[in-house]
Amino acid sequence: MMPAKKLPSRKYLLECFYYQELNGIFFWKMRPRKHFNSRAAWLCFNKKWAGKRAFTSANTSGHLFSRINLVKYSAHRVAWKIITGKDPILNPEHRDGDPSNNRWNNLRAATHAQNMANTKQFRINSTSGVKGVSFYQGRWRAYLNANKKRFWLGVFAKK
Asked: In which band, very low, low, confident or very high, does the pLDDT at 126 lie, cut at 50, 70 and 90?
């Protein structure tokens, strides 16, 4: 297993994001000029992204990510650094098994073995109470895990 890349400083992350601990959602802040190589890039970024939701893309395992200066970072690791001020030594794990649920009270430090033990073929999601169904961005998404792969079944208005 490759070691996780070092996160930017907590100060830098706080200049980039507003993190809502209770619902696990990130928003882009108006970033300072010093984060960019040019005035044009700074103006363009802030015009397009400031105030908008961050970490809206998901990888194949369902973990949300975003790019900071072209480097991809996972939302749960950024949340950990923002709250604790430290890079996670162990893998932050989602207590409910939903990799898109980045509420602070849903994250905990876990060894790789503990993390893998919690990855089950079907996991009952605490927000839906249904195996393989989670609530995400105002809609219900369904998936199943088989042969160590996640298969997305779709996104729906009703559970």
From this structure: very low
And the tokens for 154? 């779709």
Residue 156 DSSP label? E
The reply to whether CATH 3.20.20.100 applies to domain 10-119 is no
Amino acid at the residue 41: A
- Residue partners of 39: CB distance under 8 A and separation at least 6: 33
Q: Return the domain boundaries, the chain.
A: 10-119, 121-159
Q: Looking at the chain, how many residues does it have?
A: 159
How many C-alpha atoms does 67 have within 13 Å on its Cβ side? Answer: 4
Backbone phi, then psi, for 139, in 5-degree steps?
-140, 165
What is this structure's pTM?
A: 0.70
C-beta of residue 132 within 8 angstroms of C-beta of residue 144: yes
Task: Give the H/E segment covering residue 59.
Answer: none
- What pLDDT digit, counting tens, does each position of 37-80 carry? 999 999 999 999 999 999 998 888 788 999 999 999 999 999 99
Which H helix or E strand runs over 110?
A: strand 107-110
